[in-house]
Amino acid sequence: GEVPNTGLPTVRVRAIARDSKFTNALYRATRLGKKVFDTLFLDPLNVEWATAALSALPSLLRGRNDVIVMEGGLVGAWVARLVRRLRGSAFVDIAHGLDPKWEGAFARQRPDRVVCFTRAAEAIIRSRAPRAAITVIPHGVDLESFRPSPEEPSSELPELAKLERPFVLCAGAVDGHKRMDLVVRAVARLERGSLIVLGRGPDEVQLDALANELLGRTRYLRTAVPRSEMPRWYRAADCFTLPSRTESFGLTYLEALACGTPCVAPDDAVRCEVIGEAGVFCNPENLGEFSAALTSVLAKDWADIPRLRAERFPIAATIDAYAALFETLAATRKEL
What we know:
Layout: H1 21-27, H2 31-39, H3 44-62, E1 67-69, H4 73-87, E2 90-94, H5 100-107, E3 113-116, H6 119-128, E4 134-136, E5 167-171, H7 180-188, E6 194-198, H8 204-214, E7 220-223, H9 230-236, E8 239-241, H10 251-258, E9 263-266, H11 269-275, E10 279-282, H12 287-299, H13 305-310, H14 315-331
Parallel strand pairs: 1-2, 2-3, 3-4, 5-6, 5-8, 6-7, 8-9, 9-10
Helix pairs in contact: 3-4, 5-6, 7-8, 7-12
């Protein structure tokens, strides 16, 4: 097959899916067993990555790739090291997560380059893998697609007509990691205003029940929209927030900023580096502090501060940085 709109060839590989009933049943059978699987990087997600990497090995050995970007977990790193030894291909690990244990273990496999998205993430990885070759390439945002609207933004979305202003927007997977229940409880403490959640996930039923109890139908809406529709929702919001436990970057914050919407986020090094002066930081587990941060953002005239912050992260700069990295690594490849 081909990658859509590129003409680039693809090879389909097989893997044990992370939602496999057998894998998950075995993983969750006992608390001790779960701990052992986590220690050995044999949780369902890593099993999917590992089996995909092993399935890809024959194609990688047959190919003459200058650079391999390995998304196969720890086993994938071992596969990439083998291909490097046998075929001379450089390999890159992109640190999508922020777990020091996982990212440190991958970085210690000595990829030719570890890519992370912030200086804060670089410090975390370097604390576990001091000799790793690390390059920081921030995510970028499409500043043409994600931009403020000269029109009244809420008029773009008739779904919001029944909701009470101002609008607090939260977007992402509805699961325990994103902690959207904290947003419901914080918005419920506001004197006025509504919460809009864009996303689906395993905790959506519980979230809807909590929101209907604390906010009611005139102050809460949850829906899912295509990515192409996201700018309209960011523009309609008066504030964006996502109280997730960790983020390796937090692209949704950047998209909101590009649309002129200020943010409230957990006070950690990664989010401070991304959002900077275009938002307010807090401990979202302290609901009083969280609601006060929302109140502060909603009361302030942010003018063009959010947009100017987002303009520091153009998608073209991200693309150019990856292209330069791959060209550098390809030039060092040894034909074996």
